[in-house]
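Appendix B: complex inputs.
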Amino acid sequence: MNIKHPIKITGVGKYLPQVVLSKEIEAKHNIPVGWAEKNSGVQQRHWTGNETVGYMGAIAAQSALDNSNTDIKEIDLLISAGASFDYIIPNQAAVIKSQIKNADQYHFPALDINTTCLSFLNAFQYAASLMNEQTRKILIVCSEVSSKHLNEKNWETLTLFGDAAVAVIVEYDTSKESCLIKSMHKTYSNGVDLTKIEGGGIKKPFKFFPYDEELHSFQMKGKNLLKLANKELPIFLKTFFEETGYDIQSVDKIIPHQASKLGLLLFKKMYSLNEKVVLETLHKYGNCIAASIPLTLVDAIENKKINRGDICLFTGTSAGFAIGSLLIKY
Amino acid sequence: MNIKHPIKITGVGKYLPQVVLSKEIEAKHNIPVGWAEKNSGVQQRHWTGNETVGYMGAIAAQSALDNSNTDIKEIDLLISAGASFDYIIPNQAAVIKSQIKNADQYHFPALDINTTCLSFLNAFQYAASLMNEQTRKILIVCSEVSSKHLNEKNWETLTLFGDAAVAVIVEYDTSKESCLIKSMHKTYSNGVDLTKIEGGGIKKPFKFFPYDEELHSFQMKGKNLLKLANKELPIFLKTFFEETGYDIQSVDKIIPHQASKLGLLLFKKMYSLNEKVVLETLHKYGNCIAASIPLTLVDAIENKKINRGDICLFTGTSAGFAIGSLLIKY
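Resulting structure:
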C-alpha cells in the first residue's frame, strides 16, 4: 500500500500489571546477579497475577477513551491486535468489548488481527484502509500476557518478556494533519520455526500433550533470528522507503519492536542511529509482543518525545518470520 | 461499508479429513440410534486424525491455486481466517504459508483474522478493501479443527461439529463482473458467554488448569443463542439491505453459516425461504466453524448451484455474540 490515508492517533491508554525487577527473578531462580540486564537488557518488566487479557485490554481502552474525551458510542470498530487470548473461543476482541463499560449497549464489530509482534502495524493499516465518512473512530487494543508462557529454566526468555495492554484510538482525519504514508509486511517462511510456543494448539493438543514447561513456553532461536533479520531487514527497508520521499535517516522518530537488546543494538549500528531518534522501552517493560510498539509510542507521547506532525517509522520483526514497517505522519 | 468493491472469486479448493458417520459416533458413545441426525441434523462429518490446521490449509490452498491456474508467486497476501491454530505462536497464516509448495520463495504477508465462525466474511471484506492495482490476488484460507475440542459427554456438540479446510482466491476485478456489494458485522456483548472454549487461554492457562473435558471443549447455550439470534437477526438484516437495492427475497442464493439444524430451520421459516435459495451442507459436513460458509460455497460451485453473476448473501452468527453478512455479485 502506497497511498496516503488520512488517519490520526487521537487517544492512547495503557495498563501495566505488577512490576517485577530483574534482581527479583535472578534471586528466585539462582541466576547470577546482573545477568538479566546484561543479557536481555531488561531491568524490570510487568507480569500479571490474575489479570486476564480482556481485563487489561478493557482498562487500557477505557483510559484511551477517557484521555481523548471519546464516548464508547462513537467507536465504529474494535480491533484486538496480538497473540494473547483468554479463551480459544470467542475471539479476544469480543471478550475485551464485553468488559468495556457500556460497550454492551453498542453493537460495533469486534475483530482479531494476529501477526504476533507486528499485529499493531497490521491493525493500524487495516484501520486506515477502512477510514471514511462512515467509519470514523477505531479502537485498537494490544493486550499481551507472555508471563504464562515462560520456561523458568530458559533464562533468555524468562528475563526478556513482559505483559502490558495498550489501547490506541485512531480517527478519520479530514484536516490531513496526520496520515499513514506507507505500510509493508513480508513473511519469510524459511524462518517459521525460529520463534514458537509449540504446545496448546491443534498440532500438539492439550488433550494428548499435558503441560510441559518447554512445550508450552516460548522457544526462540535468538542467533538464527538475528542472522535472518540482518540479512532481510536492509533489503526490506530499502524497498519500503521507495516512493515515500523519506529514508531512514530523514524520519523524525523510529519506534522499533522491543525484540531484544542485541536486536536493537544491531539495528542502531546498521544505520548509525542514536537514542534520540530510536525510542526504546525494553529496559523497563521488556518485550511485550504486539504491545511493545504501541507501548513505546505511548511512552513517547507521555514523555513528550514525539510531536504532532512528526514523521514516525514503526518497524520490527515477528514470529513467522516476518518484517513489517509503517510510516506515519503523527 | 457500503461501496461496491471490485472483487471476484476465481479459485476454490478444499481438504476434508476422514469421514465419520453419525451412526459410528452413536455406537461408540451409547447414543440412541438416530439421535444425531434428529437433533443436530448431521448424518456425517469429517474429523482429523493427525492432520494439522496448517496441513489441511496448505492442501486446500494448493487445490485452489491448481484449479485456477494460479502460480503461488502471483499471491499478494495470505489470510488465515478462523479460530483454529496449530501453535500459540507463530500465527496460523505463517504456518500455512510455510507448508504451501514454493511459498517460501516469495515473501507475501501472512495474516490472521479471527471472528470465529464469521472469519471468512471479515477476511473477504478486508481483501476487498485492499484490492487495487498493486494488490490483485489474495488467498483466504479457512482451516478449522473442532474435533480436538469436543466433550464426549456433550452429545449436542459431539455430533454437531466437523473439521474442514477451504481456500478461496479472490482477485481485483477490473471487468466489474463481480463485486462486494456490502458487508456488515455487529457484536452483541450480552451474548459473550453463550459459546465458549473456556480453557487453554490466559484466563485458565494450561500451566494451572490441567486438561478437563468440559473446560477444554465447546460449551454452547443453544436455546439462549437461538433466542438472541431470533431477536437481533431481523433488525440486523433490515439495516443491512438498506441502500443495496436488494432484499432477502430478491437475492439469488443465500449461504448461511451451518450453525445448527434448528438455526437453519428457523431462519428459513422467518423469511419463508426454501432449499433452492438457502444452501445447506450441515447434514454432510456438520458445523465447521469459519470453514462452513466457504465450504458451502465450494459445494455450490462444484454442484453448479451458483452461477457467475448471481447475487449471493453470506450470513451467519458467531461466538462473541456476533452477526455478520456479506452481499456479493459472484
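Chain B has ten helices and 13 strands.
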